[in-house]
């Protein structure tokens, strides 16, 4: 079991309120990702759930019980830190065993669980090494091992992959997702990387300045962003947001079109511009287009290798049913 | 490009370093040398370097006149006791200052250090009165407490500096893993800070060993450590340089040997965290 409920939670540091009153329910077994730009309060929110920071007002309930005043150790949650936070003076085995030792578990059971966790995480050969002798990816797995041996009610991840290189990051992303499928334990995951959020989450919570902008499944957020902030934040490359007369044509203050929803045509498109930078990825081509009269830069994703170069004129057709409309406050206008 | 250091420059710096080291070491060397001379040779003019009759007589006399082992034992108990007591108090203090600082933490640290600026003699009278009142005069316990208090600011400062180098996330991880505050300090913080704690222990032991103001003023016969042992040879009966030197050599020998064997640890500890 691992249902986490935040009720009217606020957090202030001195006079600065970083989390205005916030309500959120994280259901048992769900993979929830907090995503937002740096400084949006997502890590603070995670630390409030962990108990590493005291909430200023409000309540936190874990499995229906008030956990507001509980110390971190009593909340039954395990956390994986950005810096791994391994104990450098202990072997991998002792690192993983540490929470069990603190729980006064008997040593036979500790050994059993540590070995089981090590085999799941491919760490069996490294059990007697120190963290300093491991690579970044292995260290991250030790940190995860230390979290899973406790069989916690929920896992908390604080940007766990941001110290890894790109290739490892993709691998670890899969491993964590697989771990979630197998354990079916609640996971709360903080990241500033919306790709991680989109690929891993059952539910994404988009935060800005401590305020929840939208909660939903990755595809809900992608298909129906509630406002221009979410529209711009979710999706890569980011959505083109266009204001002015072009938006007015659609009875909106702002319209948004994702780069993949604009078709490149030979001639006579609705929009025209000059190719600034063309990024050829083979499978796709990203065009950054200037002089459209719509926005400073328009990004377009074309399937395959389209051979337009810098300075060429490009003709574009947005797909009418994929245009998102927003009002003057930046809120979504229903279709 | 790496900085080019010419051979000449190397020779000059080496020579300068050795000269300074020898000048610093000379008084100790001279004391040791004098301890092997007779009293007459000790005050000979011009001073004698190696061309004298080497004798162990001074050591025999010193040992005969006073019980060296008793003073040595007192020094060990007082320096060791004040160091251990100090570190037990300083670890939690430094923990709280390093990991849960308040807005006043910096002020407290400076205030603690400022107590070192007070001339010791300024508080001699009140402390003597307290000692009389609590029957602590000429007791090892009394000196342990006083020396601990005197060196506590330095211990807290040193530990605070070392603890600041330890990432807070590791302690938070311990908290998430179910460690109590005691577990956190005992199993995570202390083992990680071992180099720092060791050099703090060493330095404090040396400071307490050499402390001469309080040990001389608050002891008579029972609790007198080696500082009092030396002082007893600079007596009003006359100048006995050779015996004084022998007593001094015997007093500084243990700490000199300890310092020699632990110098690596000491240097490592004192520069801990200077280079990441």
Automatic annotation (TrEMBL), chain A:
What molecular function terms (GO) are annotated for this protein? ABC-type maltose transporter activity; ATP binding; ATP hydrolysis activity
InterPro entries hit by this protein: AAA+_ATPase, ABC_transporter-like_ATP-bd, ABC_transporter-like_CS, ABC_transpr_MalK-like, ABC_transpr_MalK/UgpC-like, Mo/tungstate-bd_C_term_dom, NA-bd_OB-fold, P-loop_NTPase
Pfam families noted in UniProt: ABC_tran (PF00005), TOBE_2 (PF08402)
Q: Which domain of life is it from?
A: Bacteria
Keyword match Nucleotide-binding: yes
Which EC number applies? 3.6.3.19
Gene Ontology cellular component list: ATP-binding cassette (ABC) transporter complex, substrate-binding subunit-containing; maltose transport complex
Instruction: Name the PROSITE patterns on file.
Output: ABC_TRANSPORTER_1 (PS00211), ABC_TRANSPORTER_2 (PS50893)
Q: In this protein, which residues make up the domain named ABC transporter? A: 4-234
Q: Which UniProt keywords are present, listed alphabetically?
A: ATP-binding, Hydrolase, Nucleotide-binding, Transport
Q: Identify its protein family.
A: Belongs to the ABC transporter superfamily.
- Quote the protein name from its UniProt record: Maltose/maltodextrin import ATP-binding protein MalK
Q: Which gene encodes it?
A: malK_2
TrEMBL record, chain B:
Instruction: Write down the superkingdom of origin.
Output: Bacteria
Which UniProt key words apply to this protein? Cell membrane, Membrane, Transmembrane, Transmembrane helix, Transport
Primary localization class, coarse: membrane
Report domain ABC transmembrane type-1 positions.
72-262
Keyword Transferase on this protein?
no
Matching Pfam families, A to Z? BPD_transp_1 (PF00528)
Q: Topology with regard to the membrane?
A: Multi-pass membrane protein
One biological process term from GO is: transmembrane transport
Task: Indicate yes or no for the key word Lyase.
Answer: no
Please provide one cellular component term from the Gene Ontology annotations of this protein: plasma membrane
Q: Which PROSITE patterns match?
A: ABC_TM1 (PS50928)
Ranges in coiled-coil conformation: none
Location within or outside the cell: Cell membrane
- UniProt-listed InterPro entries: BP-dep_ABC_trans_perm, MetI-like, MetI-like_sf
Q: Which SUPFAM superfamilies match?
A: MetI-like
CDD domains this protein is in?
A: TM_PBP2 (cd06261)
Q: Can you tell me where the transmembrane regions are?
A: 12-33, 71-96, 108-131, 143-163, 184-207, 240-261
Q: Which PANTHER family match?
A: INNER MEMBRANE ABC TRANSPORTER PERMEASE PROTEIN YCJP (PTHR32243:SF18), MALTOSE TRANSPORT SYSTEM PERMEASE-RELATED (PTHR32243)
Q: Which family does it belong to?
A: Belongs to the binding-protein-dependent transport system permease family.
Query: Mind telling me what this protein is named?
Result: Inner membrane ABC transporter permease protein YcjP
Organism the protein comes from: Thalassobacter stenotrophicus
Higher taxonomy:
Bacteria, Pseudomonadati, Pseudomonadota, Alphaproteobacteria, Rhodobacterales
């Amino acid at each position: 079991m691992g249902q986490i409920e935040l009720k009217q939670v606020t957090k202030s540091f001195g006079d600065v309120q970083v989390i205005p009153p916030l309500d959120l329910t994280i259901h048992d077994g769900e993979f929830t990702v907090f995503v937002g730009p740096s400084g949006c309060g997502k890590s603070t929110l995670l630390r409030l759930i962990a108990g590493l920071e005291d909430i200023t007002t409000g309540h936190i309930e874990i499995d229906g019980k008030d956990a507001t005043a509980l110390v971190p150790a009593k909340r039954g949650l395990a956390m994986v830190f950005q810096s791994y936070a391994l104990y450098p003076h202990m072997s991998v085995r002792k690192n993983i065993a540490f929470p069990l030792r603190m729980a006064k578990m008997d040593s036979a059971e500790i050994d059993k669980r540590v070995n089981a966790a090590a085999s799941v995480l491919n760490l069996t050969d490294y059990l007697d090494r120190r963290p300093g002798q491991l690579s970044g990816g292995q260290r991250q797995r030790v940190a995860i091992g230390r979290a899973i041996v406790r069989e916690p009610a929920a896992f908390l991840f604080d940007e766990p992959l941001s110290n890894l290189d790109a290739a490892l990051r993709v691998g670890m992303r899969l491993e964590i997702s697989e771990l979630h499928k197998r354990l079916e334990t609640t996971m709360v995951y903080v990241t500033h990387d919306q790709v991680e959020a989109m690929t891993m989450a059952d539910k994404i919570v988009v935060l800005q300045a401590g305020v929840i902008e939208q909660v939903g499944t990755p595809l809900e957020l992608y298909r129906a962003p509630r406002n221009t902030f979410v529209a711009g934040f979710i999706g890569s490359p980011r959505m083109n947001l266009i204001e002015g007369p072009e938006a007015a044509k659609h009875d909106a203050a702002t319209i948004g079109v994702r780069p993949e929803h604009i078709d490149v045509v030979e001639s006579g498109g609705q929009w025209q511009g000059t190719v600034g930078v063309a990024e050829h990825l083979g499978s796709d081509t990203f065009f950054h287009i200037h002089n459209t009269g719509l926005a400073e830069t328009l990004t377009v994703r074309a399937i395959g290798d389209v051979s337009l170069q810098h300075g060429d004129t490009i003709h574009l057709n947005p797909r009418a049913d994929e245009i998102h409309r927003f009002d003057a406050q930046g809120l979504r206008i229903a279709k | 490009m790496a900085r080019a250091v010419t051979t000449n420059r190397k020779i000059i710096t080496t020579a300068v370093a050795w000269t300074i080291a020898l000048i610093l070491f000379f008084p100790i060397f001279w004391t040791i040398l004098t301890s092997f001379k007779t009293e007459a040779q000790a005050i000979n003019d011009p001073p004698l370097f190696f061309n004298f009759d080497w004798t162990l007589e001074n050591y025999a006399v010193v040992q005969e006149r006073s019980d060296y082992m008793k003073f040595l034992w007192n020094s060990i108990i007082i320096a060791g006791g004040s160091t251990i007591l100090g570190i037990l108090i300083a670890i939690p203090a430094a923990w709280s200052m390093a990991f849960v600082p308040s807005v006043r933490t910096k002020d407290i640290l400076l205030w603690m250090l400022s107590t070192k600026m007070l001339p010791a003699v300024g508080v001699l009278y009140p402390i003597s009165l307290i000692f009389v009142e609590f029957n602590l005069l000429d007791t090892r316990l009394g000196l342990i407490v006083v020396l601990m208090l005197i060196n506590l600011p330095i211990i807290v400062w040193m530990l605070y500096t070392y603890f600041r180098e330890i990432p807070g996330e590791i302690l938070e991880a311990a908290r998430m893993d179910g460690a109590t505050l005691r577990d956190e300090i005992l199993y995570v913080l202390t083992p990680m800070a071992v180099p720092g704690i060791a050099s703090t222990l060493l330095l404090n032991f040396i400071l307490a060993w050499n402390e001469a103001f309080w040990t001389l003023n608050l002891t008579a016969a029972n609790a007198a450590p080696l500082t009092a042992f030396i002082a007893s040879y600079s007596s009003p009966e006359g100048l006995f340089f050779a015996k004084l030197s022998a007593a001094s050599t015997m007093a500084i020998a243990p700490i000199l040997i300890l310092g020699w064997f632990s110098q690596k640890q000491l240097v490592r500890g004192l520069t801990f965290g200077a280079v990441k």
